[in-house]
């Protein structure tokens, strides 16, 4: 089971590609929702308010977990901008990423093949200007027990080297764990078998 993915954690530096007086500014952003996409687009449109086109593509999620993607030509000929940009997201095998390419028209038409090349190259340059990291796909569990059973829980956490996200250690103890997807079933079963200890999956 694949439980890792590649992404970026901070926006790329601005990149610039020129062709026949047209300027193409490229940007890559980390995004986790369509609202993030909207905010990034608004920021870039304010920054480049006199540009002709703000073309973009994004992908959120993974194939194993609710993949969402979109490509937008923003007035350029059909499939000459958004899809070449999206092609670079696929080429770099990243997700939770938005690439925006802003075009200032230079007075000379590039033709569809010229546009495809310009948007593809700008998107590629934006990704090359980004630091790509590998992250794990995790499940979040809440483990609950009485204080007298806490040592048993802590022993499993230590033995399995589990990641504790949050804990409330009182008469009723609650410990939130983040577990890699491929280990999650085994960890769940381990706690499920323990006496007077409960475990449930929660949305992270």
Essential attributes:
single chain; 204 residues; alpha+beta; Ribosomal Protein S5, domain 2; Alpha-Beta Plaits; 2 domains; 5-stranded antiparallel β-sheet; 4-stranded antiparallel β-sheet; 40% strand; elongated
Model description:
- There is one protein chain.
- The chain is α+β, with helices and mostly antiparallel strands and 204 residues long.
- The chain is 32% helix and 40% strand.
- The protein is built from five helices and eleven strands; from the N terminus they run βββαββαβαββαββαβ.
- The strands form three sheets. The chain has a five-stranded antiparallel sheet with strand order 2-3-6-4-5, with helices on both faces. The protein has a four-stranded antiparallel sheet with strand order 9-10-8-11.
- Strand 4 and strand 5 (65-72) form a beta hairpin.
- The radius of gyration is 23 Å and the shape is elongated.
- The two termini are 20 Å apart.
Major sheet size, sense and barrel closure: 5 strands, antiparallel
Strand arrangement in the largest pleated sheet: 2-3-6-4-5
Quaternary structure state of the chains depicted:
single chain
User: Strand tally, please?
Assistant: 11
CATH class term of the largest domain: Alpha Beta
Strand content: 35-45%
CATH topology grouping of the largest domain:
Ribosomal Protein S5, domain 2
Can you tell me the number of structural domains?
Answer: 2
Low-confidence stretches: none
GO cellular component, one term: cytoplasm
Family: Belongs to the IMPACT family.
InterPro entries: Impact, Impact_N, Impact_N_sf, Ribosomal_Su5_D2-typ_SF
Protein name: YigZ family protein
């Amino acid at each position: 089971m694949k439980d890792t993915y590649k992404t970026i954690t901070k926006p790329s530096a601005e990149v610039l590609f020129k062709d026949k007086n047209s300027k193409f500014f490229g940007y890559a952003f980390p995004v986790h929702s369509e609202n993030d996409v909207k905010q990034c687009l608004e920021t870039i449109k304010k920054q480049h308010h006199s540009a002709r086109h703000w073309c973009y593509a994004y992908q959120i999620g993974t194939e194993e977990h609710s993949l969402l993607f979109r490509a937008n030509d923003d007035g350029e000929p059909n499939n000459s901008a958004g899809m070449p940009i999206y092609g670079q997201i696929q080429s770099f095998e990243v997700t939770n990423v938005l690439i925006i390419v802003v075009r200032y028209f230079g007075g000379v038409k590039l033709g569809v093949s010229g546009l495809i090349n310009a948007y593809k190259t700008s998107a590629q340059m934006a990704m090359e200007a980004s630091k790509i990291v590998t992250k794990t796909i995790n499940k979040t569990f809440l483990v609950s027990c009485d204080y007298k059973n806490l040592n048993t829980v802590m022993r499993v956490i230590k033995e399995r080297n589990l990641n504790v996200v949050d804990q409330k250690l009182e008469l009723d103890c609650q410990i939130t764990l983040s577990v890699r997807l491929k280990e999650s079933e085994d960890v769940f079963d381990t706690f499920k078998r323990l006496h007077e200890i409960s475990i449930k999956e929660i949305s992270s």
